[in-house]
Amino acid sequence: MTNTLHRQGKIESLKNDYVIFAHTARGINKEGSAPKLREFMRICLKYHPVNIGDVKQGNILQEDIDIEKLIQNQDDGAGATAVFTDLDTLQKVIEELVRADLGISINVSGLLDEVQQCCRKAGLERHSAEHSLGFWGATDRLPARHVLELNTLCGHGMVSFTLIQKLIGEVKLRRLTPKEAARIMGKCCECGAFNTARAEQLLEKLKSCY
Amino acid sequence: MEIDKKKCIGCGNCHAVCTMGVIYLDEDGKSIVNQDECVECSTCYRVLTSEGYPGWFANAVRKILSFFHLGYQGRVDVCPTGALTPPRLDWPRSIRATFSDPTTIHPSTGVQGRGTDEIKSNDVTGRLRQGEVGVVVEMGRPGTGAYFRDIEKVAMALAKLKPHFERENPVTQLMVDTETGKIREDILNEKVLSAIIEMKTRLERLPELLQALEKVSKEVDTVISVGVASRCLPDGSIPHEAWVKKAGYALSANGKTNLGLGRPLFKEA
User: Fold this and answer.
1) Which uninterrupted H or E stretch holds A20?
2) Half-sphere exposure of B29 (CA within 13 A, CB side)
3) A59 — contact with chain B (CB < 8 Å)?
4) pLDDT at B102 over 90
5) Residue numbers in B near A56 (CB within 8 A)
6) Res. A210: pLDDT tops 80
7) Which of B245, B248, B240, B224 is nearest to B158 (CA)?
8) Which region among B9-18, B101-110, B230-239 has the lowest average model confidence (pLDDT)?
9) Which contacts (CB < 8 Å, 24+ apart) does range A110-116 have?
């Protein structure tokens, strides 16, 4: 399942980054969860996520993925993921999920205080919360901050540092647009947690940096 | 991953996509994978669409364009000849794919990705209860990868403080003794993209655990992403926040929130 906990960036940038995902637990509510996961995806899709998918089948950024088929093929599994870029939309998605009462676990990765406000407006009090304490150990092996911001947009760290650096170069040379480069990065992320809109914004900023 | 040298034309697209940066150009002008460092994530194979051209054709096109001094900017997300070949993996090498390829289901937990549930299903499992704190130690992420010998080193250092290693976690399942954190011998030299050591302890023991983790983190040649989680209080406040601050560590502004919509909702006795 996704690990979206360690997404990097300034608060202003993180305000455009909310990942919502459904999760089930083996022996409790995983069995028979397929229709609920399908409904979760349909609700998310209604609000135009920038990315949506599941780790088993891939995400909508991949060339051979048809979203309707992806939803239809959901079986009793671990979950599904969608990415939104603003709090208002996230609020609407949460409210609709509360009304749908699917009975599967729903999690949101994003600014904790903002997500808490969303929960309260929807009549919920958050159940559990998790913080990142950052990167420890051999941090001298890590690349520049902006590369990390793009790398951590993938739930499993599948966008390599080298690819990010190469694509930044291609954008600076005007061989690729930020949108095209963000889409290529998003293809590497299987689960659908990669926020292409935020990646595009970051690349747009980097385009003019030398 | 393996590269079919009969097909490869050395375009280099797979070098950039490789999550570990371990594909390079060999002396013969074809790409080659450093098998010791490859974590079998299969990202190169999945992301680079095979264009299926015969090698001779792709080379001929390049030579013709070069002859006329014409530049050609090929797509960066393709393998022109479909040279990438996923090998059949036997034990213990197969453990690399299990941990590194997110499309693989961990047999021990039935969960894909890194195979952990953390707080994602805490509303129905009650894995973390009032007064407890969960600590997730993701070794090798971002982008560096980790050998199980380093994962064992960290697990053994933390085991001295007697945390409860999460049973439904793929790393715990590979421990021969959860009292010591020792991991089975035959996989210690295997490398993975990342692996998560997952444990819980009492809130008041968190500072001690984080200090031990900080100390051992300086003894391994990889990066560690650290996460801390707890069950919120009825007013929505997060119990571990005060303990993390007391221990002198900084909390991220962003994080993960379980909304509590799972059913049946776990009820503490």
Assistant:
1) strand A18-23
2) 5
3) no
4) no
5) 103, 112
6) no
7) B224
8) B101-110
9) A110/A14, A110/A17, A110/A18, A110/A19, A110/B254, A110/B257, A111/A11, A111/A14, A111/A15, A111/B253, A111/B254, A112/B238, A112/B253, A112/B254, A112/B255, A112/B257, A113/B253, A114/A15, A114/A87, A115/A18, A115/A90, A115/B257, A116/B236, A116/B257
Residue A209 structure tokens: 């940096």
Distance from the A36 Cα atom to the nearest Cα atom in chain B, whole angstroms: 11
User: In the numeric block, which tokens belong to residue B148?
Assistant: 């199980």
First and final C-alpha spacing in chain B: 50
Residue A104 and residue B262: Cβ atoms within 8 Å? yes
pLDDT at A123: 95
**Residue pointed to by tokens 């947009």:** A153
B-chain residue closest to A159, CA distance? B19
B51 near B78, Cβ under 8 Å? yes
Rounded CA separation B8/B24 (Å):
12
Predicted local distance difference test score (pLDDT) of residue B113: 59
For chain B, which domains are there? 2-87 (3.30.70.20), 105-246 (3.90.1170)
**Chain A residues with CB-CB distance to B230 below 8 A:** 128-129
Instruction: Quote the percentage of chain B above a pLDDT of 70.
Output: 96
Q: Is B252 on the interface with A (CB under 8 A)?
A: yes
Q: For B145, which residue in chain A has the nearest alpha carbon? A: A157
Is A166 in CB contact (< 8 Å) with chain B? yes
pLDDT at B110: 63
Domains by residue range for chain A, with CATH: 11-121 (3.30.70), 139-207 (no CATH)
Q: Check whether A1 has a pLDDT greater than 60.
A: no
pTM above 0.90, yes or no: yes
For the cut 70, the answer to whether the pLDDT of residue B269 exceeds it is yes
- Which whole number is the average pLDDT over B6-22? 96
Strand stretches in B63-219, DSSP E: 78-79, 84-85, 132-139, 146-147, 164-165, 175-177, 182-183, 191-192, 195-202
Tell me the pLDDT tens digit for each residue of A47-97: 999 999 988 888 888 877 888 888 998 888 768 999 999 999 999 999 999
Q: Give residue for tokens 């962003």.
A: B254
Positive or negative, the CA dihedral B149, B152, B158, B159 is negative
The verdict on a CB contact (< 8 Å) between A128 and B257 is yes
Mutation choice for A interface testing from B231, B257, B268 by most A CBs within 10 A: B257
